[in-house]
Design the sequence.
């Protein structure tokens, strides 16, 4: 049975790869990013832990849902008849100074939010002199996990800004081109928060935010998805390696001392943090009873349900831990939330609908029918599927971030440049 499921897993992944390579070519379109994000993780952890017990049904389900997303995306973009629009862009995005000023303004507020957070937790410059970064980092992590200290309303509102800063910087740089000074500037409040409070998920989330908004910004600017070159691939690999080192260092900081013993402990735990969600979901999916008590939106819209008083939010979302193959985690991927809320069939229907609507919007953007709501939807879909921990709508901060991001798009006229439109030449056949 294991061999049959592995063969099925491989065939589904290969079919998706062939379909995307044939129709979408090799680029950073939404289905390519989602496919690469999940497929690399699934096959990496599956074959690293090949000798361990697997159900494999969960892995097959994820791959099949991604295949349905890709098919519906392609149908939405191209239809059943091979008709395509070739666009010759006129350079209407010449001056991005106003948007750079907005990034700088958001950066100042983002840094102020970090200072407000530290003040509320009685952390000052003298605290760093007396205790040092290691001690403060360990204490802050302990407070966050075990003392359940809540932010003030003012601090909670300010905490939206650093995330929106990264999201807005991504789309601005996708349109006007990479400016590394602003890229590093946008991530600085998040990195500072990571070093002080040990909130690793914040950095991971913001990396996903930046990539999603950058790719959509590039699409808006060039009317075609971003294509990887050797240079950009090397930059991505080096950036990914740097992020892994930062997360590894943050996990060492949480233990309160930088020594050989703690490095060994973190090395053993890092696999749980990086790939444990795949193992956990497969175990949960394989052991899920046929008669299951569904929650109808609770996990997907956790923050909304919490604000309305329908359900009480708990630390970590899921309380039960999976211990398997040396991995111990309570992170089950976004798919557990989808299935718990909408059933397996409902999850597949959601993937089809989101894929079809995304493809349709891409087609409209290539025809120059651009609106802020369409761009927001594409950014949201990409983040929704790539934020693997839980639904991105589980957090009130991220929900408010999307609202603020949409307001910025509307108020800055970012998507229209200088309102010079694009010449469109229609022809039959696919674009290379």
Sequence:
């Amino acid at each position: 049975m294991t061999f049959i499921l592995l063969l099925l897993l491989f065939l589904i992944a290969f079919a998706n790869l062939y379909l995307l390579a044939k129709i979408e070519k090799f680029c950073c379109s939404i289905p390519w990013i989602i496919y690469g994000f999940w497929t690399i993780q699934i096959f990496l952890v599956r074959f690293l832990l090949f000798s361990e017990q697997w159900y494999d049904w969960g892995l097959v389900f994820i791959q099949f849902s991604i295949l349905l997303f890709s098919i519906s995306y392609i149908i939405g973009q191209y239809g059943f008849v091979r008709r395509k629009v070739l666009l010759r862009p006129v350079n209407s995005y010449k001056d991005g100074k106003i948007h750079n000023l907005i990034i700088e303004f958001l950066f100042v507020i983002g840094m102020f939010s970090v200072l407000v957070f530290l003040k509320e937790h009685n952390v000052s410059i003298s605290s760093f002199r007396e205790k040092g970064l290691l001690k403060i980092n360990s204490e802050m992590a302990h407070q966050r996990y075990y003392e359940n200290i809540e932010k003030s309303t003012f601090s909670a509102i300010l905490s939206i800004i650093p995330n929106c800063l990264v999201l807005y910087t991504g789309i601005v740089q996708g349109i006007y081109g990479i400016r590394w000074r602003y890229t590093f500037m946008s991530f600085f409040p998040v990195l500072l928060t990571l070093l002080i409070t040990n909130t690793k998920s914040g950095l991971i989330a913001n990396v996903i935010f930046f990539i999603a908004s950058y790719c959509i910004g590039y699409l808006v600017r060039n009317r075609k998805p971003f294509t990887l070159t050797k240079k950009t691939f090397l930059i991505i690999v080096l950036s990914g390696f740097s992020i892994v080192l930062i997360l590894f260092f943050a996990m060492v900081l949480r233990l309160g001392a930088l020594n050989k013993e703690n490095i060994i402990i973190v090395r053993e735990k890092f696999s749980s943090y990086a790939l444990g969600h795949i193992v956990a979901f497969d175990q949960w999916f394989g052991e899920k009873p046929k008669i299951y008590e569904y929650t109808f939106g609770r996990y997907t819209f956790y923050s909304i349900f919490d604000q309305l008083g329908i359900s009480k939010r708990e630390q970590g979302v899921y309380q039960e831990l999976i211990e398997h193959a040396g991995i111990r985690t309570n992170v089950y991927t976004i798919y557990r939330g989808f299935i718990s809320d909408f059933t397996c069939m409902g999850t597949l229907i959601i993937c089809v609908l989101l894929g079809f609507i995304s493809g349709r919007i891409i087609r409209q953007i290539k025809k120059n029918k651009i609106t802020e709501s369409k761009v927001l939807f594409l950014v949201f879909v990409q983040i929704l599927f790539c934020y693997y921990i839980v639904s991105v709508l589980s957090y009130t901060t991220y929900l408010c971030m999307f609202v603020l991001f949409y307001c910025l798009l509307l108020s800055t006229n970012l998507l229209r440049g200088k309102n010079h439109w694009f010449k469109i030449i229609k022809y039959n056949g696919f674009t290379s």
